[in-house]
């Protein structure tokens, strides 16, 4: 299903797989809205069809038309390119960051629910996710950009889990 899931059905994903997927997608979105901002902005041509910004588990990003995905999967905000020239740049960037955060959270918890994680484990996932600043906080510079998070190692595992 997802590149990070390596073809495993989402019903078998663990909390740590979901969290690594979240961190990878988040890193890709942060890159699009910070270090790759000019490239991202140029690709958001209002003359193009509806575009969505996707974070990928491998810490990259893609701006593309929404694909044909199963309707049950949460999707990023559609049509971000249309608002590019219609609002102040900082507001447009904040708008994309907020919607990217919402997409990441909804996607992670959709997978958690489909994987059958119980309430306690979902709360643990929530706490793991909230230990990092939001994309909006980073883009609006209300917090400093964190040091690069390791999305591939076991260092992200919560030591209290069993």
Automatic annotation (TrEMBL):
Belongs to the Alfin family. Keywords: Chromatin regulator, Metal-binding, Nucleus, Transcription, Transcription regulation, Zinc, Zinc-finger. InterPro entries: Alfin, Alfin_N. The PHD-type zinc finger mediates the binding to H3K4me3. Interacts with H3K4me3 and to a lesser extent with H3K4me2. Residues 14-140 form the Alfin N-terminal domain. One of its GO terms (molecular function) is histone binding. Histone-binding component that specifically recognizes H3 tails trimethylated on 'Lys-4' (H3K4me3), which mark transcription start sites of virtually all active genes. GO terms for biological process: chromatin organization; regulation of DNA-templated transcription. It comes from Musa acuminata subsp. malaccensis (Wild banana). It holds the Pfam family Alfin. One of its GO terms (cellular component) is nucleus. This is PHD finger protein ALFIN-LIKE. It is found in: Nucleus. Coiled coil: none annotated. It comes from the Eukaryota. The lineage of its organism: Eukaryota, Viridiplantae, Streptophyta, Embryophyta, Tracheophyta.
């Amino acid at each position: 299903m997802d590149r990070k899931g390596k073809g495993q059905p989402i019903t078998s994903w663990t909390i740590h797989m979901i969290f690594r997927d979240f961190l990878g997608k988040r890193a890709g979105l942060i890159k699009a809205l910070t270090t790759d901002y000019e490239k991202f902005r140029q690709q958001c041509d209002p003359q193009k069809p509806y575009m969505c910004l996707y974070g990928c588990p491998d810490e990259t990003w893609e701006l593309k038309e929404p694909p044909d995905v199963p309707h049950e999967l949460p999707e990023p905000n559609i049509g971000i390119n249309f608002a590019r020239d219609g609002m102040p740049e900082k507001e447009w960037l904040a708008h994309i960051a907020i919607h990217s955060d919402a997409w990441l959270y909804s996607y992670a918890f959709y997978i958690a629910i489909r994987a059958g994680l119980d309430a306690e484990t979902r709360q643990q996932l929530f706490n793991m996710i909230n230990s990092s600043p939001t994309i909006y906080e980073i883009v609006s510079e209300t917090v400093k950009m964190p040091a690069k998070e390791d999305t591939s190692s076991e260092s992200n595992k919560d030591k209290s889990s069993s």
